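Entry type: protein chain
Record version: 2
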Amino acid sequence: MKAFILDRYGKTGSTRIGEMPEPEPGDDDVLVQVHAAGVNALDSKIRNGEFKLLLPYRLPAVLGNDVAGVVTRVGSRVRRFKPGDEVYARPETARMGAFAERIAMNESAVAIKPATLDMEQAASLPLVALTAWQALVDRANLSKGQKVLVHAGSGGVGTVAIQLAKHLGAFVATTTSTVNVEWVRSLGADVVVDYRKEDFAASLRDYDVVLNSLGTDVLEKSLRVLRPGGKLISISGPPDPDFAKDIGASWILRQVMRVLSRRIRKQAMRRGVSYSFLFMKENGEQLRKIAALVDAGIVRPVVDRVFGLDAAGEAMAYVDQGRAKGKVVVKVR
């Protein structure tokens, strides 16, 4: 089958369009004919080798961590899906491969796609929507009347997190550039900080939750906007000891993560707040709940650009620029 393949780790010259063996579904798997695949910063980080200690893929491997398509075969123990079902998913972390004509996934990672979306829109959602859900619902337990700061409101995670937080009844602040101020306000943000003109840490106070997807300087400044007991949740690192324990990391890797996160954890402790690193997990049940919100008009996907499979490298380069408004999608079929 045709696929976008990672041959070796590295920013340049490491990927190509080529042929890969057809995936063979197991007893608990569904085989999906891919129609579209979302492009994420995670794809670039995997390509660059940033996660090779945590996610030791056997190369060559097919990139891609968001998918929408049609079920063509099901394993003997699959009960929730049948051939012909239109589905969307974030494949299991160890089984990425959405930039290809077909992909096999455990049925637990898969959900029927939102009926109101086309394949490209559906493919844009799984990873970012699950990230927003697991940060705001599972980790933060966000509730009505609380205040949340969502950094990078015009990005893939940010666009969904703003809408989900408003649905949960929170007061939402976000950061973005000048050109996107009114647009993120239209998504539901109550306060928009233009980072080109204003320092968010100087104008925001007493927030319950901060969802960070940016660098170390923003991460550390975010502690200053939290009230005592508040929660700083970061999807861009550094990984913490709880994450190391969760993934069953080796003793050496656990110590490395402890050292990497020591500074921010100590700063958080001094301010009476908590810090945690979130690496989103696949979850078909949560995707079913998200699909219901989408079909009810509560959450809408934001697609910036659509590329063909042959241009998957260009799609990743565009995402790497950090200027995408919402999500970038690769159309496979």
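Comment: The mean pLDDT is 96.
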